[in-house]
Amino acid sequence: MRIRMTDGRTLVGLFLCTDRDCNVILGSAQEFLKSTDTFSQGEPRVLGLAMIPGHHVVSIEVEADSLEDTQGFGANH
Q: Phi/psi of residue 6, each to 5°?
């Protein structure tokens, strides 16, 4: 899951949960800073477990790579 924040940062990680205030918890999260160069994202900063306050969320996207990795998840269980 990719979450864009009001300050320009982007967090990418595994969606774990949310609450009634729209706060989001991401696991294995990485932070990408807003880049002045549109072609380079820079090196991510590893955060691990991260809580994003709902009032800082601009957009939430599901990454296509994540969907491909989890398509067969429930098939074997």
A: -60, -25
Per-residue three-class SS string for the chain: CEEEECCCCEEEEEEEEECCCCCEEEEEEEEECCCCCCCCCCCCEEEEEEEECHHHEEEEECCHHHHHHHCCCHHHC
Query: Which two tokens mark 38?
Result: 């549109």
Return the sign of the alpha-carbon dihedral for residues 71, 49, 28, 76: negative
d(CA 43, CA 68): 24
Stretch 29-49: mean pLDDT: 80
- What confidence score (pLDDT) does residue 67 get? 54
Answer whether 0.85 is exceeded by the pTM: no
